[in-house]
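WARN no homologs supplied; continuing
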Amino acid sequence: MSVKWPKCINVSINLVCSFRGEHRRADQTWQFGITCEGIGGAMDLVVTGVVAGVLGTLVMDSLNLLFARTGMLSKIEVGMIGRMAVGWAHGRLRYGHPSEMEQVANEMLYGYVTHYTIGVGLAIPYVLGWDLLVGGPASPVWALAYGVATTVASYFFVFPSMGLGVIGRRSPEGIKAPLSSLANHIFYGVGLAVGVALV
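OK structure emitted
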């Protein structure tokens, strides 16, 4: 029996049974082998996703810092991301108000680890999904569109988790909060696009 998976994984299973003897007495020999081909190719895709995700997040952070200095965008608060992540780790997925998130030790470290893990965690499914559903190298143009689409996660999960409400409607910064998030994810998409084009 042979099972062939799309591109990433090809598994061949061989099952051979031979029977010898008389009066239905059989010397049964079972040979079972699994050969996995294409694992290296799958790992290449994961590496591409990791590099593109890190690059996308770096571009997001760099451009956010640049525009935040002009006052055009809200600055990404890495410490707040760290507090939120610690809350997640303790089973608290939502706060009524950002002030409820108390400062924690090493919150900047937790914040950066969480921030970049999310960036990578969003990039890998894009690269693997493209290979599985479309084939060939991932499209930089669609990577940009995908990056912009990830704003949905910020609007409907991160903002509510921080106590800012859906789309940040309870943010003291008003419309600036959701617009900043949209801009940040455009930046992420640009970095993601460059990443998949270069790797």
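The chain has two domains: 2-37, 40-198.
OK
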